[in-house]
Amino acid sequence: MKDIEEIINKTAQDKIDFDLGVKLLLEYNDNFKALFKILQHYIFNSIPNKTDYNSEVYQTAINTIPLKQTYTPIVILKTFPTKIAFQKLASLPEDENKTTTTALLWIFKITDTERRNTECKNGCGHYWHELD
Ligand SMILES: [Zn+2]
Question: How does residue 130 score in pLDDT terms, banded at 50, 70 and 90?
Fold first, then answer.
């Protein structure tokens, strides 16, 4: 597993403190577009509904992001359907990288935790759910 993926998964699984996870991702990574793509892929994968990528847990996730609700990425996530929101997030200026990373890592933490507690509960083949 690549470092970035390990940081994302360990943060989702409470093996790395959330704020530290965000910091590590931003420090480790000089390619924000690549980081964004990985986070988007992880989030979309963890949402069971592949029609509009919406679900109760996704809504819970975007409503509990630990940032001011007036920050641009939060407003976008709350205003637009999931796929359109992610397209808009991808084209935000660089100074939103930290808030966007915080928002996406949080969403994945919530949606992945729900998945681990439901469909993965009795064992799954996800190697990233087997981290020490
Ligand atoms: Zn799993």
Answer: confident
Distance from residue 82's CA to the centre of ligand 1 (Å): 22
- Centre of ligand 1 to C-alpha 71, Å, is 32
d(CA 118, CA 99): 29
> What is the C-alpha separation between 68 and 43, in angstroms, rounded?
21
- Model confidence pTM above 0.90: yes
Of the candidates 115, 100, 109, 104, the residue with the CA atom closest to the CA atom of residue 49: 115
Q: What is the pLDDT of residues 62-76, one digit of tens each?
A: 999 999 999 999 999
| DSSP secondary structure letters along 86-130 | HHHHHTS-GGGHHHHHHHHHHHHHHHHHHHHHTTTTT--S-GGGS
